[in-house]
Amino acid sequence: xxxxDVINKRKSVKKFKNTKICEEKxxxxxxxxxxxxxxxxxxxxxxxxxxxxxxxxKISECIKNxxxxxxxxxxxAPILSIVVxxxxxxxxxxxKPLYLVDSxxxxxxxxxxxxxxxxxxxxxxxxxxxxxxxxxxxxxxxKVVALTPVGxxxxxxxxxxxxxxxxxxxxxxxxxxxxxxxxKVLS
Length: 187
Ligand SMILES: Cc1cc2nc3c(=O)[nH]c(=O)nc-3n(C[C@H](O)[C@H](O)[C@H](O)COP(=O)(O)O)c2cc1C
Known about the structure:
The chain is of the alpha+beta class. 40% of the residues lie in helices and 18% in strands. A four-stranded antiparallel beta sheet has the order 2-3-7-6, with helices on both faces. A two-stranded antiparallel sheet has the order 1-8. A two-stranded antiparallel ribbon has the order 4-5. The longest helix has 19 residues, at 98-116. The model has no long low-confidence stretch (mean pLDDT 93). The chain binds flavin mononucleotide. Flavin mononucleotide (FMN) binds next to loops.
């Protein structure tokens, strides 16, 4: 699949089939996540793949501020991919904890590779971290950053509209829309 097709294909999926994940595909997806860049190449993140039904059920009960759909997705999808990051093993520049960046890039690599293999995913970051830590025996020096269910798509929603470039991309100065330059050049 072309890179831009993968980007277009990726969207948050909350209705999954419970069909098994192909091990070969999962291997490729995991390898892609391992190619993610990280602060000083420290790779301060780790992934936990959960395919145990009882643990998935317990983790679904940890979801906060989310729709029942997200909880159901965690139970239905054949696997979860959970990314955890180690703050002490990554950088902190001007108060920016870079373990969050490292972990987010790695999970997004995972998510895009999953889309390329035809699987659905949904970033979930709102959960009771302590309970997940307990269920998966995660040490206290790691923070649970985010998770996603992964599996064959049962039902997908249409894509959200593309963001307005004028509002989100500036050129040289704050609030000078990037696309204005194009207009000037053209006029
Ligand atoms: C960092 C992050 C955290 C998110 N956390 C949740 C979550 O806790 N629960 C949820 O239902 N969706 C969550 N989402 C999914 C977003 O709501 C979704 O990406 C957004 O609505 C855009 O839709 P799309 O992914 O289909 O483009 C999260 C997404 C991101 C990037």
